[in-house]
Amino acid sequence: MSTPSQNSQDRSANLPPAPDVIRAASAELIVSDLAASRAFYVDVLRLVVTEETDDAIYLRSFEEYLHHSLVLRKGPVPACAALSYRVRSAAELDVAQTYYQALGVPVRRLSAGTKRGIGEIVAIEDPLGFPVEFFYDAEHVERFTQRYDVHGAGAIARLDHFNVVTPDIAAARSYYEGLDFKVSEDIQDSDHTVYAAWMYRKATVHDVALTGGDGPRLHHIAFSTNERHQILHICDQLGALRQSDKIERGPGRHGVSNAFYLYLRDPDGHRIEIYTQDYYTGDPDNPVITWDVHDNQRRDWWGTPVVPSWYAEASPVLNLDGEVADIVERVESSEAALTIGADGFSYTRRDDGSKEGVKLGEQV
Ligand code: 4SX
Ligand code: FE2
């Protein structure tokens, strides 16, 4: 039997070696009103400000010691300007440059300091149309792990993952397998149409999730807390501030990943997930979990329906010239239509494997 990594080696036989990616490390979002974004990310979510300029805020969460994991930059169109992965050493930047030149996508090398606190960067437009950066060198700043005096009750610990919307999940999965990402979980139907896949380099469920839909668009970036109660506090706090409209979905327990979750929308509509307690995936034979798209517990373990906006809405992305990237429609059937459409159905799987079916249109 061939393993996924053997498959990806076959596929990439004619390409130079792929860069050694460690993890999803930071994202850059274009926002329309820096003060409004600051009120959300700093005053409510309590991310730590590393640095602030006239047009940008550089943020990190409490356990992070690199300069930033989130950049908010003022601009005309709210969009995602970069998803950044950290590679294992500075030498891997040459590997990345050679690899993406061979792939034939736009590649730029940015000198150290082009982005505050970050060394040299290889910036690419990936084959899925996303603006992606690779870096190694970064300025170290104070790690606030034990600064309990400033954590508050909703302490956010780390950036965990990106979720991207892309029309062809099979193609996107192959591209990431070429980068030696492995699949932890996916969602399929009985015809093997894949609706979503979760892929990782660090030993968790994912660094990037692929969501089937019109793309390239950014679905969300996710930060993790260490405890579930920290997520519940963020909900209570938003209620107390009369900002419950910022809560889009959750709190709940995911089926996929088993993590406890909450989705928020920032003042520009960018979606932020707060996530905690998924599981270890670091052994080479970590089993892949495949969910049936009709299983009503796949996206919420308690069976809570997913709100339509979660499937429909996502942020545009910029190309390397800072222009909004064109969007390609998904041609395969969409999960939203299956799940919330008039003729959708779902079921609750019983312990004996039987399916207790309900037509969603008939649910009360
Ligand atoms: O909604 S899902 O349970 O499929 C899910 C969504 C699982 C993990 C995630 O990080 C996510 O965003
Ligand atoms: Fe997520």
Automatic annotation (TrEMBL):
Name the UniProt record assigns to this protein: 3,4-dihydroxyphenylacetate 2,3-dioxygenase
A GO term for molecular function: 3,4-dihydroxyphenylacetate 2,3-dioxygenase activity
Domain VOC: 23-137, 158-277
Family according to the record: Belongs to the extradiol ring-cleavage dioxygenase family.
4Fe-4S in keyword set: no
CDD domains registered for this protein in UniProt: HPCD_C_class_II
Enzyme Commission identifier(s): 1.13.11.15
Enzyme's top EC category: oxidoreductase
Record keywords, A-Z: Aromatic hydrocarbons catabolism, Dioxygenase, Iron, Metal-binding, Oxidoreductase
Gene: hpaD
Essential cofactor(s): Fe(2+)
Signal peptide limits: none
PANTHER family linked to this entry: LYASE, PUTATIVE-RELATED-RELATED, SLL5075 PROTEIN
